[in-house]
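Listing S7. Sequence submitted for prediction.
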Amino acid sequence: MGILTFVSLTYLTDVFPFTFIFLAAIVITLRLRQMGAVASSATLCSVSIWALLDNVGNPAGLVSTHAVISLQVATATVAVTGLLMSSILSERDNERTFLGVVLENLDAGVVACDAKGTLTLFNRATRELHNLPAERIDPDKWAEHYDLYRADGVTPLPMEEIPLFRALGGEQVQNAEMVIAPKSGEPRALVVNGHSLDDGNGRLMGAVVAMHDVTGRRKAEAALVRQALHDPLTDLPNRLLLRDRLEHALVSRDRNPASLALLVLNLDGFKIVNDSLGHEAGDEVLVSVADRLRSSLRSGDTIARLGGDEFAVLLENSTRDHAVGIAKQILALVRTPVPARDQSITVDTSIGIVVSEPDTSAEEMLRNADLAMYAAKSHGKGNMQVFDPSMHEAVIEQLSLETELRQAITGHQLILHYQPLISLVTGHLLGFEALVRWNHAQRGLVSPASFIPIAEATGLIVPLGEWVLHTACLQARRWQDDHSEARDLEMNVNVSVRQLQSDGIVDVIRTALRDSGLRAEQLVLEITESVVMHRAEALAVLNRLHDIGIRFAIDDFGTGYSSLSRLHSLPIDKVKIDKSFVDATANGEPAPMVATIAMAHSLGLQTVAEGVESTDQLPFLHLNGCDEVQGYLFGRPAEAAAMTELLRDRGAGSLWTELKTTSA
């Protein structure tokens, strides 16, 4: 009869993954005790041993059965049992070998420690990450070969932040980042995950972490961040990075009360370089300016390219006087000729300066530096201005005017004034120049000098100019119909470069002529010298309009930087000589006027003297062959009704040059 025995098992750890499994059959000799007495003889027994596992798979005890057998059976049982035990041990060795091979071939680094924190496992990938020597070294020597840092790669990693020891403390470590810096080798950025190990009964056995090398990914990310924060041409910080540094500087100012200054630079005339020599030459100029700024400023200063031909300089621990001094140095540096495309190019720059005030924000400083820069530009090339609050007030006024101008264009608040043009050859009226005025409900009559620049800058000049064209052509035709002697009356209308660049400008002008019935040759479009700067864009439009009979006049000649020889390549019919030339003749300086008239005639162009206010000026102009005159002597700009009355009184066929004064 068999005997069932249960033995508590406390030393087996991970033998079999079964709930109840046969272990072995062995033969033992038992001395049976019966009723407290010792048996007189030994008995051979067959013993079957079974492992009993608990509900989580851990060995909890042994179960055995015993049966009395003969000597022969016992001998056979012992032999079988030896074979079984040998097989079991061999299988466990194979499993351990396989597990070791797997760990060594993982691409992820695996590190483990025991319950005391002693390192027990560094697989191949881990050894490579730590750049450990090929020969085996004791685990307690591993840490001598590397340093650990936080994700920034600079701050040493404290013991309590090391992922393995965080895991040993019971934390579920997820995507922790750190940097391993081997004593001999490149630092590696790692993402680490790990947790503690226990025996299933709550007894801590150690911890394990898996490490993934993300160095390549982090370098790619860093390259993308740098690309996003730097200008690709000059490698200077861009506007985004400048703003970030400006914000940090303003925050640190709370700890360090020293002020800081921001300079915004805009290159003067840079577009001419691009248009005349090409964008590659322009890029060379920009790179040269960037290099000069780098070499001349302190290492702690930030130099940025904001875009196009605009740069900025952030000066920390600076004062107003210091910033002005730096600006003067920059003006001289930029003005130095730049070699580009086998030429020596000279450009100037306009600089706006703003110094921080208490509670100033980065946005306000950038805005105010821009305002100061535009104020510098308004004073001419190569200038600088320090921000003044009145500049901001002027911008607010400008924004208000812009909004109201939009309403004025659609709300019939605009009117046209007209000024006569007189022939010095015949003394007769030739036509009128149409001049737009803004009759503001609250401000009264707004000067064109106040709103035309706004219209140009915002693009409102396009719809405004279209209205002027239609209205002026209709008025000219009305005068022609009402006054028989004014059948050939011409109308001069100012057209900006912005209008010439707009889509459909040719159709707009054709429509104005068709709707009014005015002949094309009776329309003169006045353009400024700045059209030369946009020759390539404007030439095709000018030629198309000239081909249908429309004539062109250069307005205010002498105030720009062009010459008649450069203008001659454009389809120009007249040159309107600026008032400053006319005034110079009265001041004993007739040469500019004489030379301009002679040059224009040599090119087949008619001349118009603007700003004629005195009869004393007429003999000189007539003597030197000036073709036409315009000015207060013959009538101030006035509404159509006043000009109609003037036409009725004088008639187009009378000698207007006999008028001494005329008011309207």
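Caption to Listing S7: primary sequence and predicted structure tokens for the chain studied. Residues 1-40, 660-664 have pLDDT under 50 and may be disordered. The radius of gyration is 48 Å.
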